[in-house]
Amino acid sequence: MIELQNLVAGYDRQPVTQALNGIIERGSMTAIIGANGCGKSTLLKTLAGFIPPVSGKFRWREKRPTIGWLAQRHSLEAQFPLTVHDVVSMGCWPKISLLAAYRRETRLRIAEALERVGLESLANSTIDELSGGQFQRMLFARVLVQNAPLVMLDEPFTGVDETTCNVLMELMLDMYLNGQTVLAVLHDSERVSRHFPQTLRLDTATPHWGTERVRVA
Ligand SMILES: Nc1ncnc2c1ncn2[C@@H]1O[C@H](COP(=O)(O)OP(=O)(O)OP(=O)(O)O)[C@@H](O)[C@H]1O
């Protein structure tokens, strides 16, 4: 799906990562791992198109797909007066108009996603009322509704308890089994080794594609 060719990610022409080469296959599930500050989020933002590469390039093997994006929690505005339902329904907007977002089938899709993340009873709560874990569940529901071919998640488990982590991990596995390509920045090496078929480690002398299934960092 994405081919990295000597791709260096960074800011304002200052490199953060080393040159990266490799392929993220369609339908794969990859964890980007490594120590704080090694450039995991920077790489994800580059592949999502938010910042340009410092050098090198990446290439979509087919047309660039719609990307389901789950940002790092601290980069989100929680005070905006929106309900949980409003936020989840945003997952429909790229495909259909705002008015169509309230068609029956769409409403059912939103309701189903809220149920899958366990937030059906909070659909009409405003987002400033949510706990950290509930907020993250809501963002997952939006990604579920979007059903994008490629899903990028930046530290999806930050600040959430073990039960919520397990629920969210199951949802990520469901996306993968559903044929969506999943690319996630993660810190939890135990979860990575248990669930992720592929890893890209950025904090070694040379970036390393592999699997953590045997070796737990
Ligand atoms: N907007 C920015 N402008 C300039 N430099 C930045 C910006 N955002 C991050 N950096 C720097 O880029 C480097 C890599 O940051 P990045 O967030 O990609 O690391 P990370 O591997 O995701 O770290 P963590 O595990 O702590 O989240 C850090 O040195 C950081 O200070």
UniProtKB/TrEMBL annotation:
SUPFAM superfamilies in alphabetical order: P-loop containing nucleoside triphosphate hydrolases
Single GO MF descriptor: ATP binding
Keywords linked to the UniProt accession: ATP-binding, Nucleotide-binding, Transport
Keyword Iron annotated: no
One Pfam family from the record: ABC_tran
SMART domains registered for this protein in UniProt: AAA (SM00382)
Superkingdom assignment: Bacteria
ABC transporter domain residues: 2-216
Gene3D superfamilies given in the database record: P-loop containing nucleotide triphosphate hydrolases
PANTHER family, A to Z: IRON TRANSPORT SYSTEM ATP-BINDING PROTEIN HI_0361-RELATED (PTHR42734:SF5), METAL TRANSPORT SYSTEM ATP-BINDING PROTEIN TM_0124-RELATED (PTHR42734)
Sequence similarity: Belongs to the ABC transporter superfamily.
Protein name (database record): ABC transporter ATP-binding protein
Organism of provenance: Lelliottia aquatilis
